[in-house]
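Private note to self, pasted from the team thread so I don't lose it. Backbone tokens:
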């Protein structure tokens, strides 16, 4: 995977430094993540002008434009920013002041910050649920990626949301979780979440209301 990302970075550098100075160019990529639809598109041609601005994205035909950079074995995706956060940290406790922060105090900070917001994390490969929102909570969950959670056969859901909650979800990517996982919040809230987030390969919901027993599937 590293060599493919390196190849893509090198290609973009080459394009910016050479082709962009003339008449633009194109890159063919084997896979392209469309963050608007949540789909992973295959065999796509990205065209750009002399300034390096993307002008079109379309399926690549059998005949490629002259000078096309072929990255058929690579995956292209938008740049990722702030992909992790220190949820137990406080901005006033840096440097020397941080030496006086105990583990229990860090846990308290983490609980407070988690209640306020879950921001810019990649929550993945958990045997249990990725996120549980209990009744009465109103967290802000922004710009996270949820993938491959709820893997254990003893877990009934990758996402648990109770009734009587008011979470705000914005700019998240949900892989394997369908938008209808949020219908327990009401049609208006579910529609808002579906509009403001991306659901990749969420063919069926892996979320459930917490008042539905998960049961055990097998031993």
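Design output:
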């Amino acid at each position: 995977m590293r060599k493919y990302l390196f190849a893509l970075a090198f290609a973009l550098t080459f394009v910016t430094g050479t082709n962009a100075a003339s008449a633009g160019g194109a890159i063919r990529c084997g896979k392209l993540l469309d963050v608007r639809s949540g789909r992973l598109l295959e065999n796509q041609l990205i065209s750009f002008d002399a300034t390096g601005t993307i002008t079109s994205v379309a399926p690549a035909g059998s005949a490629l434009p002259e000078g096309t950079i072929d990255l058929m074995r690579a995956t292209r995706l938008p740049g990722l920013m702030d992909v992790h956060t220190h949820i137990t940290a406080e901005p006033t406790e840096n440097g020397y002041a941080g030496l006086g922060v105990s583990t229990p105090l860090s846990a308290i900070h983490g609980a407070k910050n988690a209640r306020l917001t879950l921001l810019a994390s990649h929550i993945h490969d958990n045997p249990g649920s990725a996120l549980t929102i209990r009744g009465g909570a109103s967290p802000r969950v922004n710009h996270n990626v949820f993938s491959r959670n709820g893997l254990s056969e003893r877990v009934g859901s990758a996402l648990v949301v109770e009734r009587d909650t008011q979470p705000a979800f914005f700019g998240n990517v949900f892989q394997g979780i369908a938008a209808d996982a949020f219908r327990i919040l009401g049609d208006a809230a579910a529609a808002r979440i579906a509009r403001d987030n991306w659901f990749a390969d969420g063919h069926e919901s892996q979320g459930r209301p917490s008042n539905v027993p998960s049961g055990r599937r097998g031993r």
